[in-house]
Design brief:
By secondary structure, this protein is of the alpha+beta class. The protein contains 2 helices and 6 strands, in the order ββαβββαβ. The chain has a 6-stranded antiparallel beta sheet. The longest helix has 11 residues. The two termini are 14 Å apart.
């Protein structure tokens, strides 16, 4: 059995259709006073630790919006700043 080391990146840096597992929701200063509310919203949508996730589509020229799919089947359109909050590990 080959064991590979995990690499932590933001969901924003995840290549399209690459599966990763969510580690945590990080703070993003761009959200200022509402950062905690945005983190709670992401958690409520199912962006929880150890959940498989992948970016299934990017906007024109790799710009927002980004379509994201969770292992639960849920699909969401997220902004760049939201993707940057979601920290994942590649296996």
């Amino acid at each position: 059995m080959v064991v590979s080391s995990a690499r932590n990146i933001s969901l924003l840096d995840l290549p399209t259709n690459q599966i990763a597992y969510i580690d945590y929701i990080a703070k993003n200063p761009k959200f200022a006073d509402i950062d905690e509310m945005v983190s709670k919203r992401l958690n409520d949508l199912g962006f929880l630790p150890n959940t498989a996730v992948k970016v299934i589509a990017k906007g024109l020229f790799g710009k927002p919006p980004f379509a994201v799919q969770l292992a639960t089947g849920g699909q969401f359109s997220l902004r760049r700043e939201e993707l940057a909050k979601i920290r994942c590990r590649l296996l």
